[in-house]
Amino acid sequence: AMLRLRLLTWDVKDTLLRLRQPVGESYAAAARAQGLRLRPEALSRSFWEAYGAQSRRFPSYGRGWGLSSRQWWGDVVKQTFRLSGVHEDGVLTLMAENLYRDFCSARNWEVLPGAAETLSQCCQRGFCMGVVSNFDNRLENILSQCNLRHHFKFVLTSEDTGFAKPDGRIFKKALCLGGVPPEQAAHIGDNYTQDYRAARAVGMHSFLLRATRQGEELEVPPEHILPTLGHLLALIEK
């Protein structure tokens, strides 16, 4: 039976957009601009350590703690470089500002193959569409710069809502904005826990874009797995 779907919600990172280069490469380039030679692999490790600690301490980009996402990310960037041996405040502040700006644009993000075509086809079929992403409030601008924003009725981020996937409340807010019950909605994303399982937990349909590394796929029926975004409409309309 064809699914009676009216709303499609989308994850962004590694579903619609991806980073043009690894985080460590971007940070090494920002350091080079200040005359500092740092190894990208070491910066990558420092970044994930700093990002992990900040995420545990101040979830949802510090929204409940009076932090802006700009401050939140500034602290992550500075700590990343401190862990890599850079301690001069002026240089740290400059690199933090430059990186915050660069990650806000199409300079650091690219549209995944098939994403623009699939979104256009879904719009032509009359689906209402929205974004549900664990992202900060730069996402609207990034989607605009990458020429995808016009496909979506709404963009929900964890910074805006204060809830991060897999928290069901961010999906419930999306259903509310889309004006549909969960059984008439489907979420598309690449993460088993945050996207596939979380959307299903609130009663939505869900499709998992197959990242090569996921071992949990055993629990996902094959008809819910997307080898590529181009497979989506065939699965929905089957």
Protein model, in words:
This protein is α/β, with parallel strands linked by helices and 238 residues long. It has two domains: 7-16 and 112-234, Rossmann fold (3-Layer(aba) Sandwich), CATH 3.40.50; 20-108, Orthogonal Bundle (DNA polymerase, domain 1), CATH 1.10.150. The chain is 44% helix and 13% strand. The strands form two sheets. It has a six-stranded parallel sheet with strand order 5-4-1-6-7-8. It has a two-stranded antiparallel sheet with strand order 2-3. The N and C termini lie close together (7 Å). The mean pLDDT is 94. This is Haloacid dehalogenase-like hydrolase domain-containing protein 3. InterPro entries: HAD-like_hydrolase_domain (IPR051828), HAD-like_sf (IPR036412), HAD-SF_hydro_IA (IPR006439), HAD-SF_hydro_IA_REG-2-like (IPR011949), HAD-SF_hydro_IA_REG-2-like_cap (IPR044924), HAD_sf (IPR023214). One of its GO terms (cellular component) is nucleus. Belongs to the HAD-like hydrolase superfamily.
